[in-house]
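dude i think i finally got it to work??
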Amino acid sequence: MYDTGGETALQEVSRRKPILKNRVEPAVEEAVVKMAFDYPAYGQSRASNELRKQGIFISAGGVRSVWQRHDLEIFDKRLKRLEARMAEEGLVLTEAQQMAVERKKERRESFGEIETEHPGYLGSQDTYYVGNIKGVGRIYQQTFIDTYSRVAFAKLYETKHAITSADILNDRVLPFFDKSYPLYIQVTYNRKNMQLRSRYAEYYYSVDDVQPEMIAFEERVISKIITYEAGKFQGEYDLKGLRRKYDVYSFSIHEAVEIYLKTKLRLAILKTKDELATVLNFSTPQATVARLHEAARRLFKDFDHHLGAKLASELTSYEQFRELDKQPFLSYTFPTLIDWMDGSYQEEFTSKLNGVYKNRPDVVKQVLSLVQHAIAEKLKGLEE
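look at this
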């Protein structure tokens, strides 16, 4: 084209020009962009509807056009820009913005992406088949990578059993990090077949913030689970499913009893068929069985008639159980389900009961029965 027409041939000859009069007014465009930052989780239709409530009329397509011009048309882009503004301006997030950030984090975790806080927070482990050596047999490599620092460890083995995955942790990984970071809060094994996350200390800013009591608690619970399961199945212990087992076995016995009775108490409250039955919030930590029972008595006339003989008896046993179960939660000395299952706390608790109710074996039997039923109900989570 240049050879035949010179520079004139290279100039833009298209008659298409942007129709500026079809552009929204600057004030509207500013409001649409502001909506993208204030409510990043909103889609174009929801944003259009919310703007209409403010007296700003723009279609869903118009919202999308504005967002496209500002590179904000999808949720991830809006959230990325919001995070950039947070870093630059030190913004304090609104509730809607915080929910959007949490939503992104949950979605990333569902795809195996987890934010790590420091070295020793998250480790990823896998088994790799190296090959076959004559006279030796198959060779496998256990590989462990600290996902924060990218420090990697590798060791060769002749087998790929669970014992070899534990050996590399004890032989190479833990000694390396023991000086500064004594415990991995999470470990992924064989492409997420095992992933462990603390139930009681999931979020903290540095390892210095972690209580030594919590670390001792985690070590005790995990060690007991492995010892109990290995003895139960009389064979080599497989790390698969340890996360699910930890989630259940690390439950405090008191918490298990609370959940067990809350479920039954809620059903009894719904039986009243009173319109106030739906206002009680069972999910808050402050809503203990004792407080909910007292609230139901005040709200509903003759409420105890809706309990039934068994639940009424269990609530009586619950009060007697509470008198003996007053160990401080934050000291991480409270008994867990694994302490009951391996017999260590069960024997201690029975001894306490017999000491308090010396001449009342019926009370001892009823309290033990309540705890057993609550634990059995919680352990059903291992069967699912």
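The chain has three domains: 17-110, 122-210+217-226, 253-382.
im so relieved honestly
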